[in-house]
């Protein structure tokens, strides 16, 4: 009685290099978008917003599609596309988090105050003012950016993998034991 099927799949390309390359480019694009928002007088008041979520989804589609185009026969299964998308998103989240720390500390020092006001509005007597100030330090803002970006990456990578796969994994037949 096997409720869980075992699948056999093969990774066709050099996914480790692709994860680092596309993750680096994704992180740079996140940084440029953050700077453009600041220059256009639309500075963020939280580490992750809808802009970053939509941008992450679009970038993952583009990067996995570019990876798929470089593969022989352009065949990619769910596992490979999910690994590439998730790895790319995590690498770009780390780069974005490092830049977010620099951004909140030196470029847009008012971001801490905006985050503090947002936290204070959402606080329902759970935290004191000192605790809220600790939650809006640049290190916490950067950590929140990495964490929220990585959590959303799990969902976005699965969506990307479902839509861009074009090869199904082979079901491995269970071997019967001989007595």
From TrEMBL:
<feature type="transmembrane region" description="Helical">
    <location>
        <begin position="47"/>
        <end position="67"/>
    </location>
</feature>
<keyword id="KW-1133">Transmembrane helix</keyword>
<feature type="transmembrane region" description="Helical">
    <location>
        <begin position="82"/>
        <end position="104"/>
    </location>
</feature>
<feature type="transmembrane region" description="Helical">
    <location>
        <begin position="140"/>
        <end position="164"/>
    </location>
</feature>
<protein>
    <submittedName>
        <fullName>DUF4199 domain-containing protein</fullName>
    </submittedName>
</protein>
<keyword id="KW-0812">Transmembrane</keyword>
<dbReference type="Pfam" id="PF13858">
    <property type="entry name" value="DUF4199"/>
</dbReference>
<dbReference type="InterPro" id="IPR025250">
    <property type="entry name" value="DUF4199"/>
</dbReference>
<feature type="transmembrane region" description="Helical">
    <location>
        <begin position="20"/>
        <end position="41"/>
    </location>
</feature>
<keyword id="KW-0472">Membrane</keyword>
